[in-house]
Amino acid sequence: MSEFTVGERDFLLDGRPVRLLSGALHYFRVHEEQWGHRLAMLRAMGLNCVETYVPWNLHQPAPGRHRDVAAVGRFLDAARAAGLWAVVRPGPYICAEWENGGLPAWLTGGLGGSVRTRDERYMRHVRDWFGRLLPEIVSRQADRGGPVVLVQVENEYGSYGSDAGYLAELAALCRARGVTVPLFTSDGPEDHMLTGGSVPGVLAAVNFGSRARESFAALRRHRPEGPLMCSEFWCGWFDHWSGTPAVRDPGEAAEALREILECGASVNLYMAHGGTSFGGWAGANRGGESHEGGLRPDVTSYDYDAPVDEYGRPTEKFRRFREVLARYREGPLPELPPEPARLAAPVGVPLTGWAPVDAVLAALGGEETTGPRPPTFEELGVTRGLVRYEVDVPGPREPYPLSVRGLRDLAVVYVDGVRAGVLTEAEPRLAEPVAGPARVELWVESLGRVNYGPLLGEPKGITGGVLHERQYLHGVRARGLDLDAFGDGVSAVPFTTPPPAGGPGLYRGTATVRKAAGDARLELPGLTRGFAWINGFCLGRYWSVGPQRSLFVPGPVLREGENEVWVLELEEAAGAAGARLLPV
């Protein structure tokens, strides 16, 4: 057992100055059987600590229902076994390019802008959640023989709000629930962020990607005493669908890291290993300086151009960082662990089964509702997935424009069973007018909830209404299909032979692995946009717009012999030519 404290200028371990050389690695973005390898990679790079967020929405899918909160404790045990300290960032808000910034959609759907404030309706849920989560952390603090040395209060709150009382209440809640290690906040190095996001008596840290001396000088204007820490050194960046891959020069990034360490500061590489947003949990951002512009969905890969890539391999950035970090560690650095096994050879995956999306919805969807206006995803209890809205255009009437008000985020529209087009938030009107009477179906998909900025918590689905000319169409029927519904399998879905031209629907096939299984990539030529599973494990969203062209398949998901593959294609396609597994 050790005492980890905050001194006037240094972190102290049993009274001795220590420096945290930390790296972010999200346990929820790495298959559990590969935690040990990724943690060993961090140690081999020269780090002595690992940092992780905790996504509330992953562990509490509905009020009163929790899912594997113990995974947090298992990861911290793995960190201790790897010889690393741990920094834990429990939120309740985490950003992390994660769906809704980690906040449950069932919570934000009811509270809207009252989240991340002292509103008692919000804080009641936070207290309940922390009551389940914090025991996993508290029991593994350094003063109890565990690896946890720091716990964060909220996350970059100064970029969002100025309710100092809210932060103070969260800090007090952590203390009341048994957190004894130092607490800290993290914000950008701007004055308004530091004043809005820091708490008296709680260590303040700053996040940046360059110009360390300037950033630490800004911090010192607010906090003349205490250890310097860059709680997020952005050594890479994340990607958006249809965007350009973010890449940072390894040498330039290594020099920025060197500057941080020359200032005598502790550091947390964000990310040291990014991993993958499995399960469709990737978030989204809004464009523009105000973060209120067009939606920019995040890709499934969270490679982040990190020193350890998505597949767990060292990069040139890893080698450059290792050279810098070696100067700040006593003795030789550990050797790199053996690489995980890779798939031995390409494997074809003929997609021989198919069911139309209507049939999948009938088998796995929720209850249908009818009302005067379209319900949102949140009102239907849909987190990640899609909703079919149906509405009738009365008649007889001449053709008029059909549009959707408040569409979030994308709708494939059918008129009397014939595909009529794709609507988006930016283009919410069908190209061709619609005459009545007619039956209109709108298959609306969420492309990821916003994880940062003032529009955090905005609802999904049709949030306004369906209009014919300027007239609202009422009597809307709605039924949701949540990705969680696939967790129990697809045996209830009536499969048949795929149509020759392909098209939307749930495809099923088998990948026969004849040699040892290992890490692989899944490619889906001919398909446009949707989600993929192997042996019931959701790999995440695919989308032909790129820049991501394949989905990572962790080796532990595969097995020798037959592997079942499901692909939920949501768009028209050139044809389901068949998937293939490729070695990484």
From TrEMBL:
Residues 374-475 form the Beta-galactosidase 1-like first all-beta domain. This is Beta-galactosidase. Keywords: Glycosidase, Hydrolase. Residues 11-327 form the Glycoside hydrolase 35 catalytic domain. The active site is at residues 156, 232. SUPFAM superfamilies: (Trans)glycosidases, Galactose-binding domain-like. The keyword Hydrolase applies. Residues 504-563 form the Beta-galactosidase galactose-binding domain. One of its GO terms (biological process) is carbohydrate metabolic process. GO terms for molecular function: beta-galactosidase activity. Pfam families: BetaGal_ABD_1, BetaGal_gal-bd, Glyco_hydro_35. Belongs to the glycosyl hydrolase 35 family. It comes from the Bacteria.
